[in-house]
Amino acid sequence: MAATYHVRKVAKGRWAVTSVIPGWITPIGTYTKRSAAITTARLLAGWRSSVVVHSS
Questions:
Q1: Edge-to-edge strand ranges of the sheet holding 4-11
Q2: What phi and psi values does residue 55 have, to the nearest 5 degrees?
Q3: Which domain of life is it from (predicted)?
């Protein structure tokens, strides 16, 4: 079962990465730079999972 990694802005200058599997949400961590959060999510996702970036 493949997970979906979500990148969201949680506060000014803070981006959170979470792993979402149907029925389960796991927080991965927070990052100060958006690009660092996206890079982390892409590395964890690999070729099997997807990354969703919520813009706000």
A1: 24-31, 14-21, 4-11, 50-53
A2: -90, 130
A3: Bacteria
Q: How far apart are CA 7 and CA 37, in angstroms?
A: 7
Cα–Cα distance measured from residue 13 to residue 32, given in angstroms and rounded to the nearest whole number: 5
| Count of C-beta atoms within a 10 Å radius of residue 16 | 17
CB 27 within 8 A of CB 15: no
What number of other Cβ atoms are within 10 A of residue 37's Cβ?
25
pLDDT digits (tens, 9 = 90+) for 16-46: 999 999 999 999 999 999 999 999 999 999 9
* pTM assigned to the model: 0.90
- What is the distance of C-alpha 31 from the center of its chain? 10
